[in-house]
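ESCALATION

Customer reports they have been waiting on this structure for their group meeting. Please prioritize. Original submission:
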Amino acid sequence: MAIRKHAGLIATSVVALTALAVGGGAVAQAPHARTTPKPVRTYQDLERETGLKTPAGLAFGRMAVDVAGKDWPDTVSFRCYSNGGHVESGLKAPPATKVFDNVYYLGDADVSSWAIKTSQGIILIDALTTEADAQRLVVDGLRSVGLDARDIRYILVTHEHFDHFGGASLLKRLSGAKIGMSEVAWQGLARQKAKEGSPIPERDLVLEDGAKIMLGDTSVTAVLTPGHTPGTMSFIYPARLNGVEHMAATWGGNGFPSAIKDRFTFLESIEHFAGYTAKAGVDVELSIHGDNDDLIGRLERLRAGKGNSFVAGRERYLRFEEVYRLCSRARMADRGDF
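Update from on-call: job pushed to the front of the queue and completed.
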């Protein structure tokens, strides 16, 4: 299914920018040095941490700060950052962590893998960068929380970058799991060359827009959300806590595209996915990169017994989505895309 076109979204942005962008197009950006993301809580933080410069870009960015409030300052920092994508934090990988009754974190400090336990095995979202990562963080990580990687039945890959599929072949050899991704992602893999320790998995399960992957008592919904890459998919699935079922969403591709047409596609995908998250009543956000949402800090607080801040609630989740919209427009406005 093709992603829906949202002309109204683009038209609204153009109207807003016409009023805001006194002085015209984007100015040239100097490289913005940065190590790990620093939370953006104020307008001053926004200018210092993101490098946004134009009146229109800053206007959208300030709206994102207001919407994020105290809940999503790291998301503003990453999403509104004008000149780059993910950074290597240099932090030690957190231990495998049981985040919900049925959902486990297995990644390192920068790239995530999520295991969903079902009544008939495990569904894994993303497989990390290398087979060594998959062995150390997924296989050994599952063992440390009382699970067995041989019970993995599906490996759902968000997109066609090595840091999300590099370990999939090892896990498939170990478990016999089916590897699922979009048709466009499979085509993208066919054009790539394997890297040392990160083989290209053989073509397997093709996931279509809106597909439901059923395993035992659990259903995962796959949604096409291109933009970061042409084949990006995002996922919605149940996350149970103390007998209460919540619904989690994992956005599949965070890095903002370099091509203008892909940036507009990214905006359209936000709206497309929002339609699915609204229908599902999503109230939990689980990311594939920790710099997007203070993932590592939330895991630390959870392990320290300071509560489960992964349960956002519906209103907070909606504000997370709105930060994605506003910061995407901020970055596009800063480049003169509108």
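Sent to customer with the following note: Residues 94 and 108 are 6 Å apart (CA to CA).
Escalation resolved.
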